[in-house]
Specification:
The protein is α/β, with parallel strands linked by helices. 45% of the residues lie in helices and 17% in strands. The protein is built from 27 helices and 29 strands. The protein has a four-stranded antiparallel sheet with strand order 6-5-14-16. It has a four-stranded mixed sheet with strand order 10-11-9-12, with helices on one face. A four-stranded mixed sheet has the order 27-26-29-28. The model has no long low-confidence stretch (mean pLDDT 89).
Length: 887
């Protein structure tokens, strides 16, 4: 890549990131090769909806994947990261229909074929936006292998799976109650229903028992559905109603006779212990109707309106009908009483419309046989969840799973591959589109109008993206996938379905590990949503801060499985870190102009050995953290080493050597160590912040064309490492203490001082004597003396006591004593005034009587603080006055 001899003075992500990504693509850095050496490592991207745009959840999910793939690529694995998008049946059709509505059109005005053409145009338009956003984030996918859930290959896989399941008897069509959205006009699965607590009512209705003066009172939250009642149920153990079981009641308003039945489902303690049964409009009632062979009377249509079976209420919405029917029931003395009642009501996850249970003909996958292998795979450890607690979430759903309704009443999606002969009624399920009826040879065939649930095609993602059902080289090399990275909110939607479909058709689990991350919440801990208006566009952050800043912010402080609060001020902190990295790199590169590796000798100083040891520790710890999917911890370790060890200490310690103030050999060694540490640090940081590390890498001596092609660093063992670390940390702790003493004594930065050391043992003193320059460079020390404990100067010195050394700073000459005495006397007076003010307040009975306890406690805490400061300042003032008098 074209580069100047020196980095720009300031890091500007906007001028770097597009250029770097183009460089990666031009040099085929992301391409996977089935013939490459190295153990395969595969990730398939959870496909974002093609009509949407990236939100922060996508940004975090793809950042985590990119970190793993870049790290494994550098470790020498044969990596493949498959990108792709999902056709998102309901979401996409809703968007296109909204677009048509703006022009005064409906899908019926276009017809199915033209509508689908329009939707493909919509897909093509927004697909490009998704890809651009993923590239802006730095995703190192193999774009030559990009997939779409409705591309030719995936469509072929979908048909093959449907036909095989059908032939095996695991797919069937039948009348069943489903979750119906009257706005989206389609069924949605149980896990796509969002339940919300709603304040409503509980109404008690009196049904007359036939040929009797008795009435049976039932409690209901939906009186409008009584028009479709086909029974009243009681618990068989409920003695109150045992004599009524088998008798019939007269349904008020309608006049229909319906039976009184006994079923264990009924809760004796809810309401009156008797419940109305409306099989066509309640999931549990439908299950009861199957057990008792009850009829289903549909009274609500697909638009959420009362139908012809509702009689005079036909055409009303359910809420309008409720109001009117309650009036009539009250006039008939059927309404006994009503109560306020809070209960959970299902809403469509897409449009928030209240879900209407609805009986209709649908296609289902029988789940019992498919679920067992998927359960065993996790129980037996063939696939593990990270964190492990999500094992139970996954297992709980599969162990209680119902048959999966896979048909959707949409036009956009994989159309169900079943045809009906319009002449003889034969049903044909086929991989290829049939032209004649297999029974009567008629050509009058019509395909099923429904499409498949979006999750049906995305459930095949781990293997359909690799070429299945063909026996491709990619499938043989890269399946099973290595890890699935996904959010905790779609374990039911997607993870479990990929598991049982992969086991059924590949005979192997789709991935060995599932890395679950949490959700991105706003600063108040709320889920981000359009309705709350608290969503944040990651592309806006990238435009303002750069992708590296966003990536690093999302991963630091993030632990597997836990939600993350998004706080804007953390972006500023990461930007400061990026600038720190840039400035450190720029400093090192400036001092490498005459670098010649052949002239460098391994004559390392204590600081050299220390930084190399710390680097080795960091390599080990970062690698272990990544192995354990502790990506946030890994990023934190790189951050701490880079900022605290390399920038704040080592670079400051080697400046005099690099500036030629010591020997030429020392300068060459310092150059070599700086280069090694900077190169390795960039490699460790690269998976997290790929753009800035690549830009810096191009200015360093390197053999690889890209940092992502370099080899992940390995720790270097050194048996003297621990002793070196101990010695250097003792020096660093001492320097920090000297700086604190200077600050406490008000010694200006430019003032050089004398330091007296009383070392606790010979090894410490020897280490200090060999490295006196460190104290002179970083603590403003001019002279160092090693003393005995009985030195007369100690009584008039500022001091600090550490475990390995006692530090003394003689006061004479270190400060302008008269100025310091004046300053301390003024500070002492201020502290005295503050103490007296608080004492007077606490002695005021009126204040104590009226002030809240928390206010009183705060005042007492202030008094303690001021008193402690008073003692310290008074002691320091006494010491300074003693020295001044002696002087």
């Amino acid at each position: 890549m074209q580069k100047n001899t020196l980095l720009l003075t300031k890091y500007e992500p906007q001028s770097v990131e597009n250029k770097i990504y183009k460089f990666w693509e031009e040099n085929n850095c992301f391409l996977a090769d089935v013939n490459a050496t190295g153990e395969p490592y595969t990730i398939v991207m959870p496909p974002p909806n093609v009509t949407g745009q990236l939100h922060l959840g996508h940004a975090m999910d793809n950042t985590l994947q990119d970190i793993l793939i870049r790290w494994k690529r550098m470790q020498g694995f044969n990596t493949l990261w498959v990108p792709g998008t999902d056709h998102a049946g309901i979401a996409t059709q809703v968007k296109v229909e909204e677009s048509l509505a703006a022009d005064g059109l409906t899908k019926f005005d276009l017809g199915r074929e033209k509508f689908i053409e329009k939707t493909w145009e919509w897909k093509d338009k927004y697909h490009g936006r998704i890809v651009k956003q993923l590239k802006s984030l730095g995703c190192s996918c193999d774009w030559t292998r990009e997939r779409f859930t409705m591309d030719e290959g995936c469509s072929k896989a979908v048909r093959e799976v449907f036909v095989r399941l059908y032939e095996k008897g695991l797919i069937h069509r039948g009348k069943y109650i489903v979750n119906w959205c009257s706005k989206c006009h389609t069924t949605i699965s149980d896990i796509e229903v969002e339940h919300k607590d709603v304040e409503s009512g509980l109404w008690y209705l009196s049904y007359p028992v036939k040929n009797s003066k008795e009435n049976l009172v039932v409690a209901t939250t939906r009186p409008e559905t009584m028009l479709g009642d086909t029974a009243v149920a009681v618990n068989p153990k409920d003695e109150r109603y045992s004599k009524l079981i088998g008798q019939r009641i007269i349904l008020p308003i309608v006049g229909r006779e319906i039976p009184i039945i006994a079923d264990d489902y009924v809760e004796q303690n809810f309401g009156t212990g008797a419940v109305k049964i409306t099989p066509a409009h309640d999931q549990n009632d439908f299950e009861i109707s199957l057990r008792h062979q009850l009829d289903e009377v549909v009274v609500i249509d697909k638009n959420g309106k009362m139908n012809e079976n509702a009689g005079k209420y036909e055409g009303l919405s359910t809420i309008e009908c409720r109001v009117e029917i309650l009036k009539e029931l009250k006039s008939l003395n059927v309404l006994v009483k009503e109560e306020v009642f809070n209960h959970s009501v299902g809403h469509c996850y897409r449009c928030d419309t209240i879900i209407e249970p609805y009986v209709s003909n649908q296609w289902f996958v029988k789940m019992e046989l498919l679920a067992k292998p998927a359960i065993n795979a996790v129980v037996e450890g063939k696939t593990r969840f990270v964190p492990e607690r999500f094992n139970q979430v996954y297992l709980s759903w599969l162990e209680n799973i119902r048959d999966w309704c896979i048909s959707r009443q949409l036009w956009w999606g994989h159309r169900i591959p079943v045809w009906y002969c319009q002449d003889c009624g034969e049903m044909i399920c086929s991989r290829l589109t049939p032209t004649v009826c297999i029974k009567c040879e008629s050509t009058n065939l019509e395909q099923d109008q429904d499409v498949l649930d979006t999750w049906f095609s995305s459930g095949l993602w781990p293997f359909s993206t690799l070429g299945w059902p063909e026996n491709t080289a990619e499938l043989n090399t890269y399946y099973p996938n290595s890890v699935l990275v996904t959010g905790r909110d779609i374990i039911f939607f997607w993870v479990a379905r990929m598991m049982f479909l992969s086991l059924e058709f590949m005979g192997k689990v789709p991935y060995s590990e599932v890395f679950i991350h949490g959700l991105i919440l706003d600063a108040q801990g709320r889920k981000m949503s359009k309705s709350l208006g608290n969503g944040i566009d990651p592309i806006e952050i990238i435009d303002n801060y750069g992708a590296d800043i966003l990536r690093f912010m999302l991963v630091t402080g993030n632990t597997p499985g836990n939600d993350l609060k998004f706080q804007m001020d953390r972006l500023d902190g990461v930007r400061n870190f990026a600038n720190k990295v840039w400035n450190a790199a720029r400093f090192v590169i400036m001092n490498l102009e005459d670098y010649d590796s052949s002239l460098a000798k391994n004559d390392y100083s204590l600081a050299d050995n220390w930084i190399l040891g710390r680097l080795s520790d960091t390599i080990t710890n970062v690698t272990v953290a990544l192995d354990n999917y502790e990506l946030g911890e890994a990023a934190k370790l790189v951050y701490e080493f880079t900022w605290n060890n390399f920038c704040d200490w080592y670079i400051e310690l080697v400046k005099t050597r690099l500036f030629g103030k010591e020997s030429e050999e020392s300068r060459r060694t310092a150059q070599a160590v700086c280069l090694k540490v900077l190169r390795t640090t960039m490699q460790l940081l690269h998976p997290f912040m790929p753009f800035i590390t690549e830009e810096i890498w191009q200015y360093l001596p390197h053999g690889e064309n890209s940092i992502m092609k370099s080899i992940w660093p390995k720790a270097e063992l050194n048996f003297e490492h621990l002793e070196i670390q101990k010695s250097m940390e003792e020096i660093m702790e001492t320097i920090r203490s000297i700086r604190n003493i200077r600050a406490e004594m008000g010694i200006i930065v430019s003032k050089k001082i004398t330091i007296l050391f009383y070392c606790k043992n010979e090894n410490v003193q020897k280490s200090f004597e060999l490295n006196v320059n460190y104290f002179k460079q970083l603590a403003g020390v001019e002279t160092i003396e090693f003393i005995r404990k009985d030195d007369m100067r100690l009584s008039t010195s500022g001091s600090a006591v550490l475990s390995h050394v006692e530090i003394f700073v003689p006061l004479g000459g270190a400060v302008d004593l008269q100025l310091e005495i004046n300053r301390l006397e003024k500070e002492l007076k201020q502290l005295t005034d503050e103490k007296n003010r608080i004492i007077n307040k606490l002695n005021d009975d009126n204040f104590v009587a009226k002030a809240p306890e928390i206010v009183i406690q705060k005042e007492k805490a202030k008094l303690i603080d001021y008193s402690e400061k008073y003692i310290f300042v008074a002691k320091r003032l006494e010491e300074y006055k003693a020295v001044y008098i002696e002087g």
